[in-house]
């Protein structure tokens, strides 16, 4: 029988004990809540305290979403953050099975959790979720050079990076989080996976997407949350919520934004050196500093970066036509070349390569840089927002 791991300290070393909370008469909801809280504090309490800079002050919130009469339960549990600067809640997905000795509780991101959800009946954990959790766990142990994730807004659009790499709770390590705002305010899933919501209060909550590639992403401060139920599939770019100042489980915020965090396995992972949305993020000496880098261009905190989508193979730009309603696409990077297409303002252009040609006085000033589309034709960089003043694609 699997026993829940609990972390204690003996002569400076971690020791393993078992947590089995004996069921009271009826083995009801209160017993489940107690078991999940105890497991959450044992496994994640120390990390939460370190992030918060203070001992855990509130009991973990337990939100079961499914159960059956065979003694199985599934849901989320969250340690609320204290009301201190930029603190963020800690959350986990749990599966629990009631046995004679008490509830056996497993938290996501571990081999024990994968084994437990595999044993759980399909009315509590779907077959699709079982496959997802198994793949996520296996892939979380494999080194990758690119997350395969986009940024959490529409592809080809630029948002403000209001906060560079920082901890899930501000100064805490690792620097796993980024703050973004801009555009239409709609926060979109950074990749395909399944969605889970926790700490649902006052129209806000903490949204998490578990991805097959070993990563999970979380999104905090939002309102207008997706109406998708826990465990439902989401695709890259699916709507999750809107930027706001929601604090359903503590923390603080100075204005509407999304607090976007990256996790692997059962813990946060640094964004330093990770490529997301075509940008590689670098942390600074202090939290909220650092920058995003792409093709030699660096954008620091307070700057705008364009979501170039999943992976880095095809850069993109957005047509900015200025006083016009459209921009000409020419057969060569010359103003005298024939017009082969017209693109309306706001169109997303996938860029194959770049070259120097005729100078053009565009929205972004005078430039001789031209971009060749992946479907053919040339558009002046003066009418294309790419998040950079220089080339973002290889030379043609």
From TrEMBL:
Signal recorded as keyword: yes
Segment forming the signal sequence: 1-27
Cofactor binding note from Swiss-Prot or TrEMBL: Binds 1 zinc ion per subunit.
GO aspect biological process, one term: proteolysis
Name of the protein in question: LasA protease
Keywords on record: Hydrolase, Metal-binding, Protease, Signal, Zinc
Domain SH3b: 310-388
Residue numbers binding Zn(2+): 166, 179, 259
GO molecular function: metal ion binding; metalloendopeptidase activity
Residue ranges, annotated region (Disordered): 307-327
SUPFAM superfamilies, per database record: Duplicated hybrid motif
Active site: 221 (proton donor/acceptor), 257 (proton donor/acceptor)
Cofactor(s) essential for the protein: Zn(2+)
Keyword Coiled coil carried by entry: no
